[in-house]
Design goal:
Blueprint: H1 2-29, H2 37-54, H3 65-85, H4 94-130, H5 137-152, H6 164-185
Helix pairs in contact: 1-2, 1-3, 1-4, 2-3, 3-4, 4-5, 4-6, 5-6
Amino acid sequence: MLSQIGHLLIQTVFGVFVYALLLRFYMQWLRAPFRNPVGQFVSALTDWIVRPLRRVVPGLFGLDLATLLIAWFAEALMLVLIYWLRGFSFAGAPGIAAGMLFTIAAIELLRASLYLLIGVIVVQVIISWVNPHAPLAPVFDALTRPFYALFRRFIPAIGNVDLSPLFVLLVAQVLLILLDNLSRLLPGGS
């Protein structure tokens, strides 16, 4: 019982932090506006660690590598804590264990990115139906527009209904299936 509670607390705390870091990374990469409640929340939650690391880790081609690196390390630290909670020891082969942890953490970051994309698409679609001029609409539009653009070139709107969100969701689900199969091949993968 205590192990389950610890597992839940670790996943919740680190999960919120990793998702906030990923959202910050994608908001900056896709040039989504930060002057809104979502941007302010993400900045307030992550500025304390991202700003100092940016002095050491520069960006590359408009990508905020410091934020991505912190998300990767936070995911790896979460995995270490969860494995320790399960009684796993890293003493036997620490180098191999570290390599596997960082590989699994990278796969989990990709998985979290896909779940984040799915969540953003669902919220964006609901906002576009209910109130397309909502204050948060530009944020979600900026986060989804590049993904929709891939399909809008080939799939026209049918009866003024844009089907590109459906196809992006379908591709995201296929990628999640592939990641699940890949993580099953790794030792200690889910």
